[in-house]
Structures are given as C-alpha cells and as structure tokens.
Amino acid sequence: MGRYRKKPVEIEAVQLTWQTWNDVCAFTGPFPEGMRGVYIDSTGVAHDGHPGGDPRIGLVIPTLEGDHLATEGDWIIRGIQGELYPCKPDIFEATYEPVAE
Question: Which of 43, 67, 80, 82 is the most buried (most CB within 10 A)?
Fold first, then answer.
C-alpha cells in the first residue's frame, strides 16, 4: 500500500459567529438553493424560526454529499472548485494555517 500527502492548497474561509454573519453572507454570495440560516437550540436542533432562549447561529449548506449543518464557531470553507462546506474548529486548526498576504 502506498503513502500519500495532501497537496498544499490555499482556501478561503470565514468563521460562523453572530458577529461575522454579514461576512459569511458576503463570502457565500447569494445563497444557493437549499442554503439557509438557522437557529440552533440548547439541544442542538436546528430551527428556521427563533426557538426562544439564547440560540446559537447555524447555516445549512447543501453539498454533493447532502445538507450539512454548520453551527456557531464552525468555519465555512470555499473549496478549490468553488464548493462550500463546513469544518469544525479543531479540524480547521489542525489542517490550515494563515497565509501571509
């Protein structure tokens, strides 16, 4: 069996938070069909309307593998073919590093 290394690739990403919601919207552009902002209640369930209490922000992202739910703190990544997908913060930090501008 061979061993392989992931090719170095630069990506664009934005972290999903209440404070960066406008940045997320600018980053994604017009939401593609099926993408929508949601509220996440204290049990982790997504709601289209405000469920009361202090919900977290979320984003439903349609991908080739089906809909994925990004929750507050996740990173939204634009892949090399322009596709969008969520990434948990610990995986993002282990996989990516900032690029010097």
Answer: 67
Average pLDDT over residues 19-25: 96
- DSSP secondary-structure letter at 18? S
Domain ranges of the chain: 12-95
C-alpha R_g of the chain: 15
- pLDDT at residue 101 tops 80: no
Q: What pTM did the predictor assign?
A: 0.88
Q: How many Å from the N-terminal Cα to the C-terminal Cα in the chain? A: 38
SS3 12: strand
Average of pLDDT values for 19-41?
95
pLDDT at 8: 85
